[in-house]
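Thread: calcium ion complex, take 2
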Amino acid sequence: MASNITNPPSTLGKYCVTLTSSLVLASLVALTVQVFYFSPIDPVILEIPSSASSPSSTKNNQLQNVIKLGEGFLKQPEDVCVDKNGVLYTATRDGWIKRMVRNENWENWKHIDSSSLLGITTSKDGGLIVCDASEGLLKVTEDGFSVILSQVNGSQLMFADDVIEASDGNIYFSVGSNKFGLHDWYLDLLEARPHGQLLKYNPTLNETVIVIDNLTFANGVALSKDEDYVVVCETWKFRCVRHWLKGIDNGKTDIFIENLPGGPDNINLAPDGSFWIALVQLTSKRLGFVHTSIVCKHLLASFPRLINLINSATKSAMVLNVGTEGNIIRKFGDNEGKVISFVTSAVEFEDHLYLGSLNSDFVGKLPLPSAE
Ligand SMILES: [Ca+2]
Ligand SMILES: [Ca+2]
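Output below.
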């Protein structure tokens, strides 16, 4: 009889439920093992200042007035600098150093064949010093490029982020992270531990020393007008740190400005001795919980395709003008990123601000008087 060779429906149903439960349980165990055991990060909670948790609350859209220089010609120009002749330079993601002479025509200047060029600065004996997050520090002149520094204490210099040259020839530069590379920057953000450094390279002695260790993503570097201190941006800490090079505090490190309304990227000295700091939006009101949940951090680190869900940096832009006392003088933004977003650098030259961005194919130019 059929009832002797088939299970009764209720028994079959229970069997199916048990099988499904077992499969779900096994999948959950596998997912948990995958997420926690193989997670590439060892995260801690990121402290987000209230000023940065809802950055779009400030009504400030002056950056929507930027003139787009070299639109379509410049792939993700992260940093900009201007030499003493007024020539504007930027390093692009496709490995070019491009420049614009005063007539506003851009040219391909030197090709470095790297997808990891970051901070740039002019050098006092001509040419530029360029950070290559894969190769180290490069010198770029009319003759081409050469490597200035590729190793620190016997190890490859990785993730050189920004650089400035002092008048005595010493080169101060940041290392974003000693653990994660440029293309894994989001893992460093999720881990939120201090893997960054500020270093000083003395070309005469061919010696590199650590100026500040344990920075939570070391980024922009600038010297004060009198070179009595150097400032380095600590992006995941929403602050900039100052190290004294002269005076009674020589050798000491203190906080220059903190509780910034975004993560500080590049910092540049303004002609009047103040600084311009570009801020990137690291979080949003809706997604702030990601940075305070260890489980979420492991999940995102294990499934990198999800990272775009929380990447808020491409949704707005903000730059600050900060005085020598760490006081905010001016703040310009594009809250919804309508014209420019993910601004990583702001350089003042002849009453204009020049803006680099990792989400643009142009350099933004903002006339300063009309922006006030
Ligand atoms: Ca720079
Ligand atoms: Ca940078």
